[in-house]
Amino acid sequence: MHKISYRIVQKYDLIAVEDLAVKNMVKNHRLSKSISDAGWGKFLDYLEYKSQKYVKTFVKVPPGGTSQTCVCGAHVPKDLSVRVHKCPECGLTADRDVVSAMVILQRSG
């Protein structure tokens, strides 16, 4: 986690992440082991303190709706099993995680 967080901070001037309530997410018994094993909370801590150390901008964005919103602003509801985002408003078709990342970036500014 140290090496990856260092690389990210060295490569980007702005790091925007969802402000996830990791402690609450671990309460979901089906996901808790995976979330704990991944070390999400610790990784975000590393990104934040390294961003401060190297004078980079670190922004936590409220997570509400980032995977259910298009970059055009349209609400596009989908189940977790749906991996492709298809916006009926603007016609954007892309990987759901890529679109979520773009929404997070929009909300960071």
Q: What descriptive keywords fit this protein?
A:
two-stranded parallel sheet, two-stranded antiparallel ribbon, 44% helix
Question: Explain this structure to me?
Answer:
This protein is an alpha+beta fold. It folds into 2 domains: 1-62, no CATH class; 64-109, no CATH class. Helices cover 44% and strands 15% of the residues. Strands 1-2 form a two-stranded parallel ribbon. Strands 3-4 form a two-stranded antiparallel sheet. Helix 1 packs across helix 4 (40-53). The two termini are 26 Å apart. The mean pLDDT is 89.
Largest sheet: 2 strands, parallel
Cα-atom radius of gyration: 15 Å
Q: How many domain modules?
A: 2
Q: What is the helix/strand order? A: HEHHHEEEH
Percent in helix: 40-55%
Lateral strand order in the biggest sheet: 1-2
Number of helices: 5
User: Which class best fits the helix and strand makeup?
Assistant: alpha+beta
Distance between the termini: 26 Å
- Care to count the β-strands? 4
Low-confidence stretches: none
What's the overall average pLDDT, rounded? 89
- Overall, the morphology is globular
Strand fraction equals 5-15%
